[in-house]
Design a protein that fits this description.
The chain is of the alpha/beta class and 518 residues long. The strands form seven sheets. It has an eight-stranded parallel β-barrel, surrounded by five helices. Strand 5, helix 2 and strand 6 form a beta-alpha-beta unit. The radius of gyration is 27 Å and the shape is globular. The termini are far apart. The N terminus is likely disordered.
Amino acid sequence: MDYQPRRQLRPWVIVVLSLVLIFVAVFVSIFVFRPGILFPNGSSSSASSHSNVALPKDHVTIDFSSPVGTSQFSPGISHVDDTLSYPWNNNDQTAVNHAKDLLKQAITYQNTAIMAWGAPDPWPDPSQAEPSDWSYLDQRVQLARDTGGIPVLTLCEAPWWMKGILQQDGTTQLLKASDEWSNDAYNARILDNKMGAWLHLVQRVAERYMAPPYNVRYFQVWNELKGYYNPATQNFDYNNSPGDPSGPNAKHGYTYMYNQVYNRLMQVATSLGIPKGEIKVGGPYVSVITWSASDHANLSHLSKAYGTYDQRLLDAIQYWLHNKVGAGFITIDGSNSNDDKDTVDPFTAAEKFGDMVSWIRSLDNTTYPGAATLPIWWAEWYATTYAHTSNNQYDAAIKAYAMIKLLKAGGAVALSWGGTGDDTTYDGGLWTDTGSAGGGQPRPWYDAYKAFKLYFGPGTKLYRATVSIPNDVEALASSSRLMLVNKTAQTISLAVEGEAVTLSPYQVSVIAIKVSIP
């Protein structure tokens, strides 16, 4: 058989193929292996146009040699009004549906108080043997289920006839039916001789909502120590005393009430065949207060740039940790404002949320069981501009910075107080009002809150991100995402992983990064 030599490529073909390969390589380097800024709809764009121009001198460096922590964080919300109800008042159905869709995408935990803040009294008539009005709670817990959330119930307030207010002279002011939704009702505790009725209500709530189809497993006990202030001692009755159950007195301590509630919840779980370990109960739901004044009577030794913590509330947390019969998590609340006046910028003050988590973790776990191990929730948190401004981007930057600090410190859950915010406190909220057509649209804070769930949820390994201008920009890094918060009113350019990123004033950006983890 004759030998046939192989056909050789002509020179011009080789040139063309080489140019094609070079073009592909450049294309991949520019559009595939570069960081990109992620937009809320999930798409991305390159962080900068590819050129030979010098990178910005300010930069972010991420150390991927080993993780510095693991996120435990999940975003949450408390339903505190009827803005997600339809038909109700002037709510627009399309706007409500938009807001529910946003809820489904961004929120993990959804909390509802068993009465107040939108929920009616389930047992307003003491002559009735049982609570009977469950319609609102049914709808709210079902809403959490329908939107993919984990339902939480806060066992707080109580029917008017169960409560009273401790007076300066040691007597107790009883409530009338007309006081049900007054300030007096919100500032009252369970009467010592009505503890049995309160526990019966707790039991009925647990029996209804622990069982299918609701399957509630998380419960918070009470709300901000409301009613537990003792005017005679100028302190809070957070002790484990049963008070004086011989009559209608309001003298028992919060920890006593919490322990009774905890035991009753566990009894219900057992009766329903639910393992006790599945039921997570949280307290003491203390509102953490800070002061700017250096001569306040109740100052602690825990002092930060934004203020000094009130010793009474720290004592309440420690006492509860030491004397509780059990708990599934620790729950507290507070804001980035002092109780007297604010003396630093709201970003600095927003470090409070991480600082409190760190303080609890610093407590001796033998003396205060669970301080080192129990998940830490913020039942309510308010990080605002505390100024007359309607700049929603500024509001979002402060909130994102606060959550980064909380997450880095090891915080587990933050429950936003409603979805539409509060104009009186300059809280921008997550979405626009649902009371008109076109409402229920995401505000800037929503996109950042959602990013925490999508990219920095529980189990996400965190890496050290160092910013050359830390006073101006905050950073949070995982193996695949970098969140940047511009804390200034100026445009800032940064070099990130060899590319330029530009942040507009108070912008919160999430950048996709592609690295090789050792």
